[in-house]
Specification:
Family: Belongs to the MurCDEF family. MurF subfamily.
Shape: globular
GO cellular component, one term: cytoplasm
Radius of gyration: 23 Å
InterPro entries: Mur-like_cat_sf, Mur_ligase_C, Mur_ligase_C_dom_sf, Mur_ligase_cen, Mur_ligase_N, MurCDEF_CellWall_CoF430Synth, MurE/MurF_N, UDP-N-AcMur_synth
Strand content: 15-25%
Largest sheet: 9 strands, mixed
Strand order of the largest sheet: 8-9-7-10-11-12-13-14-15
CATH architecture of the largest domain: 3-Layer(aba) Sandwich
EC number: 6.3.2.10
CATH superfamily of the largest domain: Mur-like, catalytic domain
GO molecular function, one term: UDP-N-acetylmuramoyl-tripeptide-D-alanyl-D-alanine ligase activity
CATH class of the largest domain: Alpha Beta
CATH topology of the largest domain: UDP-N-acetylmuramoyl-L-alanine:D-glutamate ligase
Number of helices: 16
Length: about 425
Amino acid sequence: MTLEQLHALFIEHPTICTDTRKITPGCLFFALKGPNFNGNAFAKDALEKGAAYAIIDEEEYKTSDRFVLCEDVLKTLQDLATYHRNQSKAKVVSLTGSNGKTTTKELIHAVISQKYRTIATKGNLNNHIGVPLTLLSIKEDIEMAIVEMGANHMGEIAMLSKIAQPDFGYITNFGKAHLEGFGSLEGVIKGKSELYDYLIAHDKFVFMNADDRVQQEKLAPYIKKIGFSTTDHQFYTITFKEANPYVILEAEGTQIKTQLIGRYNFPNCCAAILMGKYFNVPLGDIKTAIESYQPQNNRSQIISKNGHEIVLDAYNANPTSMKAALENFSLMDAKNKTLIIGDMFELGETAAEEHQVLADFTQKLGFDNVLLVGENFFRTQTVAKKFKTFEDLKDYFLKNPVEKGTFLIKGSRGMALERILDIL
């Protein structure tokens, strides 16, 4: 079956499933493989549960015409996504970066959808499977697609750019994330900049944070760009007002009061405003979109529980985002602050050093109470309370009920520190 024929089949059955536990009637099942599973072995089950066709890459599993045999299921899914993207009239905006990708993507979606029929990456489905699935969710009437792209090693953004073929692109920032895969901050910059490489090579348009030195240097010779800045008036100027705790900013004399905490969310809002202006969304509608946006999924949420005020930022963490969150928490006008921070993952050989730096930083900021959780933090030299496991932390709270106060909870996804809400 040719790619064109497969696309015609997809138009007839426009729902993709890759998990037999989530089969919907009439879908196309793509039998993907993983380290511990072979999707081909589940193809028959997918058809029995209601899938219209199963795309497989091992001939022994083909027992009827409802099995579509290809050379490689993953590559076929990616190629189909690119083909579908090119059949669509939608413009694609891709974004990547070390921190703030998902929040920025959701803000851009909120703003752009004020004027255009828009889809965006669901959650953080931003990898070699998630990006194709996002592209394949572009329906005939969609005008704009906001595609988030994540990476933890070199070459990944280049590959995702080739699949998504974006018309526009934005990089949130370059920080100490996924150092295990990228090797160093310089590696992160090079890896994330693969989006710039694609956009420049194909004469596409770039949005930029003109206050970011690295972005300025990378894009200096390139003409097709537009940026925002707090100080440089040759770019679109946006003024930061405060973040105590919520970010308030001003654009063209219009004040925008967000429901996002932390100055680190200011550039995320700026990117959405800049794109809204570029795509001719009225400033009043931009204001409405940003002021209405509420963070979810353990990302910079403020929760009131049993007399405690909790800043829940436990979706993920790396040295750069952790430092920004700690600085912001230190500036919050609140009493009896308790800091609960968990291990940061994927730091490779730098793990011990980066955790020690953060442990020292908490002492420098002078928080009332600091609780460090995880094996990496447990090995640091610090006066803070340390807990090797979450269970140890849980036991501590059960034996030592905490006073009412303000908490910051942050750690990598694998730490699942949101569980602490059930204990407080």
